[in-house]
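Quick one, tokens below:
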């Protein structure tokens, strides 16, 4: 079996599995807020995990807020920043058109509350139009409440100029939320160096337990709790902490740091794979190919062959990829990310996303190459649209 949907959710990584099994056997289990000895032990383990996460992500210990994942972090930042910004004359929210729906739907929520949502265009290579963003920051000076742009796209893997965005937002005193969900655990990330105001991620994208995540905040005191509760996470996120889950965040991030070199090997192997599949099928298109991409994602299309059909073919060889196209009436449609890049339906309906991680054996690409070749040879003869 080859699991090639890491961008959807990564399997629990080996280091985490080993740690967690032992942790479940050994305990202790207690409420980290209890003052007895077991509670204190649990609290210490959780706070050690916070320190490891902070160190790995280049953040201060106090800037790490544990939560359930990126969706929660994004929602909390939107609510914290936008609940009052309009009263100060800042009524514009800027996002790109390739953001995850967790961001887009928050922006839409605030449009209903009187905000204007401006969408930065995306260039055909999958990178946002930074010049347009710069112009808007000038044109709407003093009126922008929040800029929310991702670090790496979940479909294409294309890396956005988030460090430049952070620096220009800082210069213009505009809060910048960077969705780092697809970047953390694949690339080295340094929160303080980048000068981002808020960054979010989900543990299940990099081998920790599902339902865990991190919100990094330059100034945590500016955040309002979404869940009020009893003052946990310094009053920023109420409710008894998922301490076992948070411990896995630290183990997974530590495992990523130790295995960072594997990503370099993966990158070389992926490029070989892409080169070879293009040689065999010159009509295939690799989306975002010319832009900087995370090293483990290939978003590939054989125009005229449904991505879903390719996915099913690969699944019959026990290879799990995804198409990411939304479906209406069983008709795959071009995703909003590809539409934002100006990709035609001919290409857009044919995509599959192959995404691996540092735990994937390098030979996975050899097996995927052969299975994809078989699928394209078979399905290419009976073009489906
Ligand atoms: C870029 C990006 N942002 C946010 C999310 C939301 O993550 P979660 O569903 O874990 O909260 C995802 C998940 O696919 C994602 O890829």
């Amino acid at each position: 079996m080859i699991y090639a949907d890491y961008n959807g959710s990564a399997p629990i990584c080996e280091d985490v599995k080993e740690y967690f099994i032992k942790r479940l056997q050994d305990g202790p289990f207690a409420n980290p807020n209890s003052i007895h000895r077991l509670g204190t032990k649990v609290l210490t383990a959780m706070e050690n995990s916070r320190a490891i996460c902070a160190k790995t992500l280049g953040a201060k210990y106090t800037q790490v807020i544990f939560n359930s994942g990126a969706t929660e972090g994004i929602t909390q930042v939107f609510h914290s920043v936008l609940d009052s910004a309009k009263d100060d004359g800042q009524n514009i929210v800027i996002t790109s058109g390739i953001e995850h729906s967790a961001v887009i739907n928050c922006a839409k929520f605030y449009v209903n509350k009187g905000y204007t949502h401006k969408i930065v265009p995306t260039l055909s290579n999958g990178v946002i139009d930074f010049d347009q963003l710069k112009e808007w920051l000038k044109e709407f000076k003093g009126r922008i409440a929040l800029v929310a742009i991702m670090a790496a796209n979940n479909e294409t893997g294309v890396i956005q100029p988030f460090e430049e965005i952070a620096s220009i937002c800082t210069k213009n005193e505009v809060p910048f939320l960077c969705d780092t969900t697809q970047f953390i655990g694949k690339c080295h990330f340094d929160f303080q160096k980048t000068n981002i105001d808020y960054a979010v991620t989900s543990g299940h994208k990099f081998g920790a337990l599902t339902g865990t995540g991190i919100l990094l905040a330059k100034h945590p005191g500016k955040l309002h709790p979404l869940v009020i509760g009893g003052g946990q996470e310094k009053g920023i996120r109420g409710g008894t902490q998922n301490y076992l889950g948070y411990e896995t965040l630290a183990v997974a991030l530590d495992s990523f740091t130790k295995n960072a070199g594997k990503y370099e090997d993966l990158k070389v192997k992926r490029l070989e794979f892409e080169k070879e599949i293009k040689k065999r099928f010159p009509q295939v298109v690799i989306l975002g190919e010319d832009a900087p991409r995370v090293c483990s994602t290939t978003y590939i299309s054989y125009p005229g062959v449904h991505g879903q059909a390719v996915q099913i073919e690969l699944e019959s060889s026990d290879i799990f990829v995804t198409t990411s196209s939304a479906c209406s009436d069983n008709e795959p449609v071009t995703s909003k990310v590809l539409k934002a890049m100006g990709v035609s339906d001919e290409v857009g309906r044919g995509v599959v996303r192959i995404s691996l991680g540092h735990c994937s054996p390098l030979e996975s690409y050899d097996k995927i190459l052969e299975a994809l070749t078989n699928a394209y040879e078979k399905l290419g003869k009976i073009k489906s649209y």
